[in-house]
Amino acid sequence: MTLHMIRLCVGCDTIEDLVAWHGNSPDPWPLHTRMAPKRVEELLDGGSLYRIFRGLVLCRQVILSISRVEAGSESHCRIDLEPRIIRVAPTPRRAFQGWRYLDPADAPPDLAETGGGDLPDDLARRLREAGAW
């Protein structure tokens, strides 16, 4: 069964900021976390990392691999993400530390499925807050 992960996008206010930070490389994007997920098989079975920007889930990236990296006395988890960013319907989400599992039933739909197209993040946020979307 597929399972997703959700995490705050710290240091970036928009999806464009995230893309500028990583560049346009076709290589997988590495994400490092201190805690490794225990449900790896479910995350690798079509799971995605959903990102929260300023209180809203705005996009996701498919999880390609998860590995444990040993670096002396320090170890961490490396999650490789597909470089393609999939915009999702802006969905409010409170801040938290680290990452959480996200059940597929609770995941926001992709904008391509909702007909949201290429709305600017700010407009999508205002429509969502007004209850019009």
TrEMBL record:
InterPro entries hit by this protein: UCP032025 (IPR008320)
Protein name per UniProt: DUF1489 domain-containing protein
